[in-house]
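Q: Fold this one first, please.
A: Sequence and structure below.
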Amino acid sequence: MRDTELAALSLLEAAPNVLRSLLAGLPDSILTADLDRGWSPKRILAHEVDVEHVFAARLHRMVEEDNPSITSIDPLATLAASDLEARPVANLLDQLETARAETIAWLRTLTAAQLQRTAHHDTLGQFTVSNLIHYWPTHDLAHINGVRRMLTSVLRHEMGPCENFDI
């Protein structure tokens, strides 16, 4: 694997722990609050668990099938169809950590030829296993940043004059 793929795998491996560090122990009122156009920290976590299976399934198909067709998903619709948001945060964190560890272990076994296998996405066109491996941690980081913004907004309301400190 190239350095950028190794970096992507490292970031993928770290994401469940980052989310656990941010979310474990927070009150339910904050975890479930609509803090960004229908999104809450818990909903983001549930979405991460949901798409964990989507990305892993896509990668397996790409390695096992010749140029499979991949269709877009509606993340909120697939999340609504699941029971993930009803589960406790600790359960979601454990599920993400376990599934991610299994996926990372498998990804580390891929050969250079497997990393170049392709799929055709209904809106993106042709892409490779390597492309998706590079995209996935950016997806994680975008959602981790969303959680960070949400938690900052919760705290900012109670900062009083300390809000004027240079962060």
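Q: Good. Now the second chain.
A: Here it is, same layout.
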Amino acid sequence: MDEIAKPSGKAGATQPWSLKIYNVFKEFHVRHVAYVPDSGHSELIRRAEGDQEMRALALTSEEEGVALLSGAWLGGERGALLMQSSGVGNCVNMLSLVKLCRIPFLTLVTMRGEWGEFNPWQAPMGAAAQRALELMDVHVLRASRLDEIEETVRAGAAMAFEGGAPVAVLLSQRVIGAKKFAGQETR
């Protein structure tokens, strides 16, 4: 049976996979963690904010993260972009920068619009995210179980930072858990 993480939704909730990703970031000397605030990545963001060797940078749009991490790479440092699948569409044009300039790029995408999704607005981009990334020549890896996350993120980091490729690791909604908001009832 697949392991399923319960969504955090509450401050201090544990996301066991976030520590594994954080450890991979440390292993690959990731210094910049760019993100648009997202509860799916919240614990990983807190870890990056608390690390003196990392710089966590809140963005207003995911495409800013592509430019920021490209600049970090040109300055000799590594970074990762954390986003939700709904943010992939905001990055498509800017991904031409990493493609044309051959800049190593790593993004971790928490998927929405999949398993157990309550919000129909998340479905279109959730369904199109992987194809959109692939159309921009971004290698896409997917973690669909908790026990796949660490090895998948490590493989993506190696492809990006050692192989020079743009890589997206999709974290399945089945792994991160379907979100529910206060007052939401199951029908």
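Q: Anything worth noting on the second one?
A: Confidence is low (pLDDT under 50) at residues 1-13.
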